[in-house]
């Protein structure tokens, strides 16, 4: 029986080329112009699962984009691993900031990826990371190394809130029953220091609209005498943080869990250089809530950020105008115990209450979801750690991430199982940004590490 290391080195060119083909399909779920491409990607994933050894493969229809399901059951008495990933990607824009076309993958080296990285939208988030599992499955089935049952569930709406997946999970508890859920859709500290993500933040996302006069006005004839919705919106947004960068919405922090000093000291042991962080982002000083470190601010603390703001004239030259309306998209990242719907309600009430009578405001909720924390004393975590220790030569560090995968909390609620977040991306891989990439080292290391997770999980389950 071939071992995984030699299998990967023997097949790596094919593994890379197959991923490149998948990355060429622009599966942008947010933009209906790409709907046929999203569907084609689902078909491509289905074929890949079937070639990798799944005995059952299905395109499961939902009210939205389909879910690709695959399974290989070898013995009902053995444990079952459920792999989750997403085949949809974020929009590529702003396209002009890409050094090469987003759906025309190229391999280039970077400081962090001396062995090369594949540049394309979705390379890391999540096609590359999802496909590691498909190739790991190929290895295990073709080499007689699959030690348990495996199910795959790959969705096409993660980047737009996973509402069809929630619909699907609620209706298919039996089909999706498992002993552990395995996901690679997060990151790790560095290529020499693996980490396992033990927490994700929740999300509450709203859009606000501020309306002043019933039409756009000449800013000379009316300026100074009527409320300018853009001025008002800016003031309202500015008031959402105080001088310590604390969020001012009443009740916002009520459910927030304060970590003990011991837990914070433990977190601070993870390798981190503030200088390198600032250099990588070209900023002279970090910023954030008083009393917390950078790593705490972006993982265990909730936030409020404007993601986009618009209104009035933004074209070439100058136009003198007071716009009738101003808009913003605002996201709040939540920590476990803060409930997304409650936070959206608190935001709405507060935002309406701070609006002056001279304008009308409308708050429209977008998608949201709950945060997640997982303990490290379960066999899933231990098996993952053992796998990383073997392939990287050092144990993984548990780390809470600031990102969100809202479906993970729902998995726990509906399927009653824990999720292990074995991510292989780096923060510098530019997910959601121009020039997204995924290291070849990371891709192949992932394929090498995943079968070991299966092996140790099954051993530890006995
Ligand atoms: N894979 C990311 C989330 C992520 C990335 C978590 C890195 C931890 C580390 C996922 O695809 C994503 O982008 N999630 C969205 C939320 C979703 C509801 C649109 C996010 O975090 O903004
Ligand atoms: Mn993702
Ligand atoms: Mn994403």
Automatic annotation (TrEMBL):
Record flagged with keyword Phosphoprotein: no
InterPro entries: Cyt/Met_Dipeptidase, Peptidase_M20, Peptidase_M20_dimer
Domain of life: Bacteria
Residue ranges annotated for the Peptidase M20 dimerisation domain, each copy included: 199-357
GO MF term (any one): peptidase activity
Pfam families: M20_dimer, Peptidase_M20
Keywords of the record: Hydrolase, Metal-binding, Protease
Keyword Protease in annotation: yes
One annotated GO biological process: proteolysis
Record SUPFAM superfamilies: Zn-dependent exopeptidases (SSF53187)
Protein known as: Acetylornithine deacetylase/Succinyl-diaminopimelate desuccinylase
Gene source species: Lutibacter agarilyticus
């Amino acid at each position: 029986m071939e071992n995984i290391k030699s299998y990967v080195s023997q097949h790596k060119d094919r593994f890379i080329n197959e991923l490149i083909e998948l990355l060429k399909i622009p599966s942008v779920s947010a933009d209906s112009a790409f709907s046929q491409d999203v569907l084609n990607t689902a078909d491509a994933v289905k074929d890949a699962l079937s070639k990798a050894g799944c005995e059952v493969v299905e395109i499961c229809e939902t009210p939205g984009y389909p879910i690709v399901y695959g399974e290989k059951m070898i013995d009902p008495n053995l444990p079952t691993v459920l792999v989750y990933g997403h085949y949809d990607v974020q929009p590529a824009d702003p396209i002009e900031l890409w050094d090469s076309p987003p759906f025309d993958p190229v391999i280039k080296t970077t400081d962090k990826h001396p062995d090369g990285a594949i540049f394309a939208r979705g390379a890391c988030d999540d096609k590359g990371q999802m496909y590691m599992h498909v190739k790991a499955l190929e290895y295990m089935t073709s080499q007689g190394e699959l030690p348990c049952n495996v199910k795959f569930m790959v969705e096409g709406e993660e980047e737009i809130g996973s509402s069809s997946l929630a619909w699907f999970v609620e209706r298919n508890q039996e089909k999706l029953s498992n002993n552990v859920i395995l996901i690679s859709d997060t990151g790790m500290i560095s290529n020499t220091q693996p980490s396992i993500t033990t927490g994700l933040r929740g999300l509450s996302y709203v859009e606000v609209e501020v309306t002043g006069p019933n039409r756009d006005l000449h800013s000379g004839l009316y300026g100074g005498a009527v409320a300018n919705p853009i001025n008002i919106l800016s003031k309202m947004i500015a008031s959402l943080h105080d001088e310590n960068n604390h969020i001012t919405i009443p009740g916002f922090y009520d459910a927030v869990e304060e970590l003990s000093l011991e837990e914070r000291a433990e977190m601070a042991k993870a390798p981190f250089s503030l200088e390198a962080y600032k250099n990588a982002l070209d900023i002279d000083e970090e910023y954030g809530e008083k009393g917390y470190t950078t790593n705490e601010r972006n993982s265990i603390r909730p936030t409020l950020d404007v993601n986009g703001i618009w209104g009035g004239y933004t074209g070439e030259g100058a136009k003198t105008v007071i716009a009738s309306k101003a808009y913003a998209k605002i996201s709040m990242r939540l920590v476990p115990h803060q409930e997304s719907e409650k936070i959206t309600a608190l935001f709405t009430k507060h935002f309406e209450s701070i609006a002056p009578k001279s304008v009308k405001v409308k708050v429209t909720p977008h998608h949201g979801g709950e945060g997640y924390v997982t303990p490290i004393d379960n066999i899933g975590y231990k098996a993952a750690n053992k796998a990383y220790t073997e392939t990287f030569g050092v144990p993984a560090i548990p780390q809470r991430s600031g990102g969100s995968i809202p479906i993970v909390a729902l998995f726990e609620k509906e399927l009653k199982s824990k999720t292990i977040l074995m991510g292989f991306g780096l923060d510098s891989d530019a997910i959601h940004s121009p020039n997204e990439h995924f290291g070849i080292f990371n891709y192949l290391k992932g394929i090498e590490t995943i079968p070991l997770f299966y092996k140790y999980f099954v051993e530890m389950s006995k």
